[in-house]
Amino acid sequence: MSEVSIREVAPRDGLQNEEPIPTESKVRLIDALSETGVRRIEAVSFVHPKAIPQMADADEVWRQAHKNPEVRYSALIPNTRGAQRAIAAGFREIEVVVSASDTHNRRNLNRSTEESVDDIAALIPLVHDAGATLEVIVATSFGCPFEGDVDPDRVAGIVARVRADGADRIAFGDTTGMATPRRVRDLLSAVRPDLLHFHNTRGTGLANILTALDLGVTEFDASVGGIGGCPYAPGASGNVATEEVVHMLHDMGIDTGIDLDRLIETAEMAEKLLGRTLPSGVLRAGPRTRLV
Amino acid sequence: MSEVSIREVAPRDGLQNEEPIPTESKVRLIDALSETGVRRIEAVSFVHPKAIPQMADADEVWRQAHKNPEVRYSALIPNTRGAQRAIAAGFREIEVVVSASDTHNRRNLNRSTEESVDDIAALIPLVHDAGATLEVIVATSFGCPFEGDVDPDRVAGIVARVRADGADRIAFGDTTGMATPRRVRDLLSAVRPDLLHFHNTRGTGLANILTALDLGVTEFDASVGGIGGCPYAPGASGNVATEEVVHMLHDMGIDTGIDLDRLIETAEMAEKLLGRTLPSGVLRAGPRTRLV
């Protein structure tokens, strides 16, 4: 493997799990990331502002952001209304989430997994008619904090259904950091996604990516600085930090298109914008090639 | 692979890189670790108190510690005087460090790597005459913060020399967290150690262990709670956290003999003894099997 594609998710997934920051700061973060060489950015989500106040200004953030023609930008949406807003805003890559775990889906979306899959089926023609693509993110693919282990066959069943309904892409989300190298092997031997989204909640983030690389996966989400807060307690980390992923990949001779130094500068900027110490070793210590 | 042997290094390597804590706290830490099921503990080092004030009370710590007959305890020593103290204290597993990088060895030990290797040769008969074994820890094996990459052939040369001189065991130390999966493969294809000691400074700790497991290594150092401070800056982590290593291994069906719940309780205790938040995801979030 000589290339891996990183999707930078700090502006959406990351900021959605942090204290709200001003519109201007979000735009600065997207603009800085757009100049790192990363080729894909999850920019915003179009959700109800009461549900996710962090994304209440999504339209304004996106209007102000400098769009680098070299970068593909995507938006997350929860329903038809969100999809219409994303399309109207000009997005042509749209993501929607369904949880493999019924309990998690009900807590998150107030309906069963089956009902959400039906909703997605109804959404796909609308997205396609606008010339856009829909990625289905299967959350809790590696385990559910309420139900525990999730049967890989259940994930495979959801994937088969949404692919049959016309979904363009599939991602697996490690929503609360329950993935491990063993679980990555177990799930990927049952069903293959286009992209993997790991957290580093229990330290296995890069070990999971290494395992997935070994199984041929070449697309990963990551969040600059590890932005994305902690699902359980202060100090617990959320998303894998983009600079840690890129640092390991480049050392393996795998290209990402990303300028690691510029990415670390962006992580430093993000730390100031958020006003908190971010959980990224490469941000703290620099790359291994940085000598004393 | 069905079993891995963990050596718990928090009482020595960990505490040596933290603010000093009282003798009683050190004893409590060793005693608690001795009841987790871990089979090897690096307990103290016999160094000059001016060089390492954190270990000034090594004799007293060891005298007070409850020695579990199921546990093998080891001590680190820098020279003949240290070896004599360790042997007098009853240790039969002794460790000594030499840096693969000449610059690092001079900064650390005020002599060249070659001179240190000669010192070790002189030490071996003394250790063996006391019925003890000597492990040589080759520091900066995966890179030096002053010199950068370290040639695997240089590490191999040191190993060949000290093995010829009678060293019983070899460990490779990732002294400042420069190891990556690629560097682990590179070095281990040139020369094999008995044990690996990784840091998690740049997030690759568990990915490195996963790589080494794949290459057949079955012995690893780890530090409960990730105790061991930060070589560069606050927030940067040092040693891999034992509970993160054990959590990943047990999930893979690899036995360590350790009771993970008891280990996490010990990490919680250690956090109180040290009075700081320790960098361990499994300590924060619990194992993946802990449900909401």
Integer count of domains of chain A: 1
Outline the low-pLDDT stretches of chain A. 231-235
Name given to the CATH homologous superfamily of chain A = Aldolase class I
Q: Give helix and strand order of chain A, one letter per element, not per position.
A: EHHEHEHEHHEHEHEHEHHH
Question: What would the principal axes of the Cα set say about the shape of chain A?
Answer: globular
Largest interface: chains, residues each: A-B, 51 and 51 residues
The portion of residues assigned to helices of chain A is 40-55%
CATH topology of chain A: TIM Barrel
Tell me the name of the CATH class of chain A.
Alpha Beta
- The termini of chain A sit apart by 32 Å
Radius of gyration of chain A: 18 Å
What share of the residues of chain A does DSSP label as strand, in percent?
5-15%
> What is the average of the pLDDT values of chain A?
95
Overview features:
homodimer, 292 residues, alpha/beta, TIM Barrel, eight-stranded parallel beta sheet, 12 helices, PYR_CT (chains A, B), lyase (chains A, B), metal-binding (chains A, B), Hydroxymethylglutaryl-CoA lyase (chains A, B), hydroxymethylglutaryl-CoA lyase activity (chains A, B)
